[in-house]
Amino acid sequence: MYQLINNIKQFAYLSKESLDLVIPLFSKMEYRKGDEFIRFGKPCQSLFLIERGYCRAYNIQDGEEVNLEFFFEFETVTNKNSYLFNKPADFSVVACEPMIVHKVDKKDLVPLLLQHPELEIAGKKNLELIAAKQEKQLQLFRILTAKERYSFLEKNYPELVQRVSISQLASYLGVKRETLSRIRNKRMRPVIL
């Protein structure tokens, strides 16, 4: 419960009263590696706050999985368009290792947000963080080469480079596995003077 409270408090100050109202809305969920908890084509009307583990969002393109995003501890996972606009999810999310998440359903959360402005502020900040992360990723792919994208991840998101398999990371970076292996090998070679 402590992790959940800290996760919620990162978005905005919340009084004890607000926490006492919102905490009971969350359900602790455990997923095994490979469990899919957001499904393409199905509505996603929940937020998942990650306590332990990580997951990936992916689509199928030309018969192959394409990784769109990875989510780690203390991040919130949802399909934003589905959640906000009641549309079918346009990607799936699957656990990449055993996970503990805290799930809250929109139908339970929204009435509380409308009655308590500080909870509404925290909710908006959370969705803003999700949108900012997606925007940063979009810029990453439009501006940088594959080598530069990998360097950016090493510097800014080391958990991606350390925890995600090379095949999944290559898919995320939009390159073949062999290309990513070459990029990594060149970066690891010592410079001989």
UniProtKB/TrEMBL annotation:
Q: What is this protein called?
A: Cyclic nucleotide-binding domain-containing protein
Q: Which PROSITE patterns match?
A: CNMP_BINDING_3
Q: Which Pfam families match?
A: cNMP_binding
Q: Which InterPro entries match?
A: cNMP-bd_dom, cNMP-bd_dom_sf, RmlC-like_jellyroll
- Give the Cyclic nucleotide-binding domain ranges: 10-113
